[in-house]
Specification:
By secondary structure, this protein is mainly α. The chain has three helices and no strands.
Length: 90
């Protein structure tokens, strides 16, 4: 009985996962809208969504990035100075 449940549960779960797509994943095709104002509004929404996707997101910690890079460079320099005196296969 237990193996029967496992045999049928897995295919059912796979079918549900493939058929259940989120509404946002469905792409609206504006050219099939008959009314011109509605069709143009649809095109405008698509342009806005595309522009929002293409717009680069500014990092919130832009000032901290420079500081962290400088700190890493100082740490790297300290490590390079410390390994300078190590014999490499003499």
């Amino acid at each position: 009985m237990n193996s029967i449940v496992v045999k049928f549960t897995l295919p059912v779960l796979i079918a549900i996962a493939t058929l259940a797509t989120p509404a946002s994943a469905l792409e609206q095709n504006c050219r099939f809208i008959q009314a011109k104002p509605d069709r143009e509004a649809c095109y405008k929404r698509q342009e806005d969504e595309l522009a929002a996707k293409r717009k680069p997101v500014a990092p919130a910690n832009a000032g901290k990035t420079l500081e962290s890079q400088q700190q890493m460079r100082r740490d790297d320099d300290a490590v390079y100075r410390s390994i300078n005196n190590i014999c490499r296969g003499c």
